[in-house]
C-alpha cells in the first residue's frame, strides 16, 4: 500500500463506522472515500466510484433537486441544504471543509441524513425511557439478527427498511411479503422498536396455527359464559392485548374467509366486540401483517377479501430469500457463531471449505435453516467445523455426484424422513393453496403442518 493510499483506507474505515451517509472529496471535488449509507441515499449510481467528480454524479441525479448542494460544493460554503430525492426521501445534506495539516488546499466532507430518521431519533432523545428496549431482554435478543448491520451490506434490505420506517412513522399499515424464514418477524419487531415506547406490547399472532373454530375468540376475546368451556373471568383477545402497541398478524393469508369480515370491521372502526358481548370498545394498535402467499391470487380466486387486502397492504415490502442475498450469508453466519460460542468452552471455527459450501448453498429454509445448520455444526465438531460435519444437502452443493463424500450414503434415517415429509407437505400446500387445506388433504391437524414447515430457533 502506498503512502497516499494508506490514509485513504483509514478514512474509508472511519466513514464506515458512522450511521449517516458520508462522502469525502479531494481538492478537485472527486470522491476519495464514501460509506454504504451514502451510496444507498444517492441511489447507488454506477458513476459513484472512487476518483469520479461528485458534481457530475449529482448533476446526473437532477440539478433541480441537487443544484443547491452542487453550488455549495463549488463555492466551498459551510452549510446545509434540503434535498427531495427521486425515491421520496427528504435528505439533510451538509457540506464542510476539512483542512489538511501542512497543506494549503482543503478537502470537503459531504454528509447525508434522512429527515424521517432524524425526527424519530429526536423523539427518542426527548423521552429517554424509549431507548434501550432492543437490549433489555437478552434472552429474546440474542438470536435476533442485527438488521441495522445487515442493511449496510445489502442495498435491497436498506431500501426495504427505509420504506418500512417511513410507513410506521406516518402510521401506514405495512404488509411484509416473503418466503418462510426470510426474517419477516424480525423486520416487524424492528419496526415496532423503531417507533414504539418501551412499555408498548408487541403481540405476534400466527394466524395459521389457530383452529378456525377458535379464531374469533382468540383474536377478539370473549366474555364470561360466552361458550362451553369459557373461563368464568372471560379473556382478552390478541387485539386487546396489543392495545397501545403493535399487533403483528403473521401468515395473514391463513385467516379463515368467514373471519375476514370481522377483522375488516376492526381495521375500519378501531373497535372490537368480544364474543358473547354486546359492547364495543376502542382499541388503538399499530397493525403489521406478513405472509408467504400471493394474496392477489387469493383475491382473484375468492379466497381472500379484496377490501381486507387493500386495508392491510397499504405499504407492501418484500424480504428476499437468502439465495437472492448471498452478500448477507457471511455476516449472518458470523453473527450466529458469536451467539453459539457463548455456550461453548472452545469457540466454534468454520474451515474455509465449510464457509465456501455455506456460501453456495441455496438455503430453502432461509435464515432459520442457516441457524439450524450452524447449531448442528456446533454439536458435531469439537472446535473446527469442516465439510464433513455439514448436513448432506449442504455438503454436496456444487460437487459432482462422483466426487461427493462417501458419508452422504450414511445420512441418518431420521434426517431423510424429515426431508421427505417436508417435501410432501410443501407439494400439498402448493397443490391445495393453503396450509389448512393441505392439512385436511393429508389427514393431519394444522398444528402438525405448521410445526413441520418451520425450522425453529
Do you know the CATH topology of the largest domain?
A: Rossmann fold
Name of the top-level CATH class of the largest domain: Alpha Beta
Show unreliable segments.
1-7, 128-142, 400-411
Approximately how much beta-strand content do the residues carry? 5-15%
Overall mean pLDDT: 80
Question: What spatial form do the alpha-carbon principal axes imply?
Answer: globular
Rg of Cα set: 26 Å
Number of strands: 14
Total of helices: 22
User: What summary fits the major beta sheet?
Assistant: 5 strands, antiparallel
Terminal-residue CA separation? 44 Å
What does this molecule look like?
Strands 2-1-5-4-3 form a five-stranded antiparallel beta sheet. Helices cover 45% and strands 15% of the residues. It is of the alpha/beta class and 457 residues long. The protein has helices at 5-15, 36-41, 54-61, 63-75, 115-126, 133-136, 138-141, 147-153, 155-170, 184-195, 215-220, 238-241, 257-269, 295-300, 306-312, 329-340, 352-360, 366-380, 392-395, 413-432, 435-442, 446-453, and strands at 21-25, 31-34, 79-84, 90-99, 106-114, 174-177, 202-206, 246-250, 271-273, 280-282, 286-291, 315-318, 349-350, 384-385. The protein has four domains: 5-113, Beta-Lactamase, CATH 3.30.450.20; 133-318, 3-Layer(aba) Sandwich (Rossmann fold), CATH 3.40.50.300; 322-411, Helicase, Ruva Protein, domain 3; 418-453, no CATH class. It is globular. Helix 3 packs antiparallel against helix 4 and helix 20 (413-432) packs across helix 21 (435-442). It contains 22 helices and 14 strands.
Amino acid at each position: 500500500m502506498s503512502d497516499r493510499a494508506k490514509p485513504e483506507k483509514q478514512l474509508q474505515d472511519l466513514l464506515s463506522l458512522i450511521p449517516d451517509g458520508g462522502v469525502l472529496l479531494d481538492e478537485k471535488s472527486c470522491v476519495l472515500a464514501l460509506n454504504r449509507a451514502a451510496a444507498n441515499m444517492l441511489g447507488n449510481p454506477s458513476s459513484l466510484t472512487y476518483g469520479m467528480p461528485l458534481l457530475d454524479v449529482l448533476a446526473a441525479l437532477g440539478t433541480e433537486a441537487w443544484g443547491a448542494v452542487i453550488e455549495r460544493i463549488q463555492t466551498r460554503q459551510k452549510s446545509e441544504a434540503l434535498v427531495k430525492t427521486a425515491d421520496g426521501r427528504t435528505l439533510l445534506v451538509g457540506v464542510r471543509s476539512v483542512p489538511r495539516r501542512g497543506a494549503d488546499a482543503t478537502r470537503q466532507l459531504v454528509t447525508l441524513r434522512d429527515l424521517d430518521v432524524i425526527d424519530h431519533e429526536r423523539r427518542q432523545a426527548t423521552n429517554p425511557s424509549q431507548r434501550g428496549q432492543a437490549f433489555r431482554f437478552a434472552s429474546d435478543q440474542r438470536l435476533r439478527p442485527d438488521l441495522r448491520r445487515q442493511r449496510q451490506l445489502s442495498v435491497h434490505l436498506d431500501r426495504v427498511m427505509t420504506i418500512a420506517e417511513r410507513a410506521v412513522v406516518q402510521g401506514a399499515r405495512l404488509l411484509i411479503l416473503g418466503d418462510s424464514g426470510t426474517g419477516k418477524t424480525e423486520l416487524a419487531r424492528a419496526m415496532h422498536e423503531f417507533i414504539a415506547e418501551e412499555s408498548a406490547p408487541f403481540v405476534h399472532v400466527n394466524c395459521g396455527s389457530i383452529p378456525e373454530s377458535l379464531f374469533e375468540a382468540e383474536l377478539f376475546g370473549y366474555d364470561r359464559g360466552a361458550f362451553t368451556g369459557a373461563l368464568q373471568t372471560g379473556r382478552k383477545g390478541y387485539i386487546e392485548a396489543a392495545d397501545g402497541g403493535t399487533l403483528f398478524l403473521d401468515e395473514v393469508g391463513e385467516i379463515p374467509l368467514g373471519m375476514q369480515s370481522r377483522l375488516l370491521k376492526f381495521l375500519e372502526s378501531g373497535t372490537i366486540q368480544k364474543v358473547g358481548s354486546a359492547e364495543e370498545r376502542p382499541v388503538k394498535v399499530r397493525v403489521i401483517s406478513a405472509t408467504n402467499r400471493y394474496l392477489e391470487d387469493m383475491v382473484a380466486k375468492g379466497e381472500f377479501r379484496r377490501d381486507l387486502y387493500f386495508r392491510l397492504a397499504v405499504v407492501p415490502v418484500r424480504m428476499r430469500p437468502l439465495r437472492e442475498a448471498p452478500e448477507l450469508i457471511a455476516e449472518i453466519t458470523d453473527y450466529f457463531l458469536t451467539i453459539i460460542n457463548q455456550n461453548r468452552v472452545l469457540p466454534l471455527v468454520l474451515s474455509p471449505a465449510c464457509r465456501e459450501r455455506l456460501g453456495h448453498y441455496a438455503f430453502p429454509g432461509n435464515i432459520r435453516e442457516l441457524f439450524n445448520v450452524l447449531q448442528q455444526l456446533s454439536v458435531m465438531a469439537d472446535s473446527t467445523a469442516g465439510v464433513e460435519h455439514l448436513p448432506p444437502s449442504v455438503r454436496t452443493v456444487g460437487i459432482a455426484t462422483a466426487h461427493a463424500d462417501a458419508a452422504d450414503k450414511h445420512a441418518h434415517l431420521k434426517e431423510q424422513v424429515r426431508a421427505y415429509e417436508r417435501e410432501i407437505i410443501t407439494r400439498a400446500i402448493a397443490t391445495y393453496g393453503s396450509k389448512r387445506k393441505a392439512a385436511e388433504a393429508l389427514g393431519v391437524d394444522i398444528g402438525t403442518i405448521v410445526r413441520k414447515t418451520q425450522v425453529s430457533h
